[in-house]
Amino acid sequence: ENVVEGKKAAKEALQQRLGLRRSDIPLVGIISRLTVQKGIHLIKHGIWRTLDRNGQVVLLGSAPDPRIQNDFVNLANQLHSSHSDCARLCLTYDEPLSHLIYAGADFILVPSLFEPCGLTQLIAMRYGSIPVVRKTGGLYDTVFDVDKDKQRAQAQGLEPNGFSFDGADPGGVDYALNRAISAWYDGREWFNSLCKRVMEQDWSWNRPALDYMELYHAARK
Description:
By secondary structure, the chain is α/β, with parallel strands linked by helices. Helix content is 54%, strand content 12%.
């Protein structure tokens, strides 16, 4: 019920914690292992696109491959010098900080090349953050685009809950992120109702467990 006040307080706490400008502008969070599977070239593009659209971006994650880690260290140094009040890359594993990012971000970007299930988008929704995802695997199963997926969501007994894109190129990220950020700027009331909606959706085991039980009893007959 108090999603607007709650998200505002969380965003201010996140901005203060990371030394970002205290401002009511769209904030994109990225919480990910930095591996090829997670679409690192799309993550980088998403960072620059967010900054181009006058947003803030926070990334939390680290790379098992030292070359990729080093690449992101260089990007972090560049951004912290050129966009110090709008971008923060935390290249480590930090569980408590991840929760603050989920809570304080308006959007969580998940541009994975493949994703069997994906928990990031589900956690994001519980925190009232809108997922911006690539249409693949579990991301496609759980995120229904507000413009394109109304019928597919209806068939699942759900309402649309995010922004998605095809392809694995910068144009795809632009397509989803531009719509998301424009919705934040141009329709705050609608956006706030979307945050409330995604928090209320049930992605627990409750429904699948009932489905399995029904299937089990049907098989026994």
